[in-house]
Amino acid sequence: MTMDEDTKVLKDYLTFTVPHVTVLAGAILGVMMILGVPINVALGLFAVAYGIMLTILGLIIRPHVSGSALYRLMMAFFVGLIGIGIIILFYGG
User: Fold this and answer.
1) How big, in percent rounded to 5, are the helix, strand and coil portions of the chain?
2) Mean pLDDT of the chain
3) Which end of the chain has fewer beta carbons closer than 10 Å to its terminal beta carbon, N or C?
4) Cα–Cα distances in angstroms (integers) from residue 59 to residues 48, 63, 65, in the given order
5) pTM of the shown model
6) What average pLDDT does this structure show over 43-58?
7) Contacts made by residues 45-50, CB under 8 angstroms, sequence distance 24+
8) Between 5 and 19, whose confidence is greater?
9) Choice between 48 and 2, residue whose per-residue pLDDT is larger
């Protein structure tokens, strides 16, 4: 079973870019925790920042994999992450 070209590009994208964004977002969360930002605010900002960074990366790769159902699911998750972050910020306590 071989992968089509869109799936290969998406796999490479996920393998080589998402870990870097995850480390950056985690560092932002760590700095907020060290500075004593309330946990709900820190987690909300983390989710929003992480979702925005992943969404930007997804939009960059869009011309190559926009037809893939996995890409659409992934982008829905990224936008959902932003929404969850906003909900945590406003209704998190």
Assistant:
1) 85, 0, 15
2) 90
3) N
4) 16, 8, 10
5) 0.88
6) 95
7) 45/85, 45/89, 46/85, 47/81, 47/82, 47/84, 47/85, 47/88, 48/82, 48/85, 48/86, 48/89, 49/25, 49/85, 50/21, 50/22, 50/25, 50/81, 50/85
8) 19
9) 48
Rounded CA separation 21/91 (Å): 26
Structural tokens at position 45: 């900002």
Per-residue confidence (pLDDT) for residue 50, from 0 to 100: 96
Q: At 4, list the tokens.
A: 């089509």
Tokens representing residue 34 in the block? 């060290």
Contacts of 78 (CB under 8 A, 6+ apart): 51, 54, 55, 58
Residue 45 near residue 5 (C-beta atoms within 8 A): no
Per the structure block, which two tokens stand in for 53? 């960074």
